[in-house]
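pasting for the record
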Amino acid sequence: MVKEILYYLVAAFFEILGCFSFWIVIKNAKNPLWLGVGVISLVIFAYILTKVESEFASRAYAAYGGIYIISSLLWLVFIEKQAITKYDFLGAFLSILGASIIIFSAIKKLS
C-alpha cells in the first residue's frame, strides 16, 4: 500500500505541475516555454500512474482522485501561498477516506 501511495503522490506532483504550467501561461501570460514543461510533466504523470497495482485503470484513477485533492491543497499552500479553509480540510478528509478504501480493497484483491 505504501508503494501505491508513493506512486500516487509522485503522479499528483507531475499532473499538478503540468496543469499549473498551462495555467500560468494562459492565465498569467508567462513564457510559453512553460507549455513544454506542462506537456512533459503530464506524460510523466500518465506513465507513473500505470505503475500502480490495480486490476482496472478506472479503479486506480478513482483512488488517485483522493490523493490528487490532498496534493492540490498542498500546492495551494506551498506554491500559490494561499490559506486552506475548513471546507478544504473536510473535503480532503472525505476524499482521502474514500481513496484509502479503494486502494485497500484493490490491493487486497491482488494478494
